[in-house]
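name: query_chain
kind: protein
chains: 1
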Amino acid sequence: MSASFFVSPQELWSRIGTAGAPVILDVCRREIYEAGPGVIPTAQWHRPETYMEWVPALPADRPIVLACRYGHNLSQMIAAELRARGVSAQVLEGGRAAWSKANLPLVTKATLERFAPKLPSLWVTRRRPKIDRVACPWLIRRFIDPRARIYYVEPGEVQHIADDIGAIPFDIEGVEISHEGPRCSFDTMLKLFGLEGNPHLDRIALIVRGADTARYDLAPEAAGLHAVSLGLSALAGDDDQGMIERGFMVYDALFAWVRHAAEERHNWPAKAA
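structure:
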């Protein structure tokens, strides 16, 4: 059965930050796109007037959400074309205006254009990731650029490789995306991309900070994240890409927990239903 034609802002937000998130296309006219300070997480801008040129190159096996200013003619026109081609396409109900009215997160466009001017974006950090260097790639791929390429190298080579290939170095000393006092690189990235202030991501940040800096008093879950992360690292060895693949499952689960299950409590003996 085809997906419904419209998806509400809240429903779309519930799918962002997950492994199964849809491809989000911003199809506002250029002047509208450029006037806005932020973009929906992971959204990529496409010129709506030339849609017949780029529609054939879109993935046919992944759901797509179209977002224009108000959810009217531009996004509906392109969604209709995609659905006629058998693609699971939906229109963001109310468009970007409804997303903003619902006070849902927006990625700061100026930062996005500075750190990820071309896609896929390139990022490089120290090898053998455990906590912060797994959390940051999770944030990048789930909220900034799903196709981002993450490289792990020897610490002394991070900046050299960043310079050679135009990648963004992170979680090393002397770069913009790194620790700031007691705050982790994950905190820095949230602030830079305008995602700080979202209660779900802020809670993840507190857990990451507690786990990465041995401040288990910051969040009860921090000690658990520390233990699981070090255990995954011991299993992964030098397989850094395998480490983040497994680690992403942990952060997906944490994010689902803070969104949907943080108030759930378990007791024994179990109460009768």
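note: The two ends are 34 Å apart (CA to CA).
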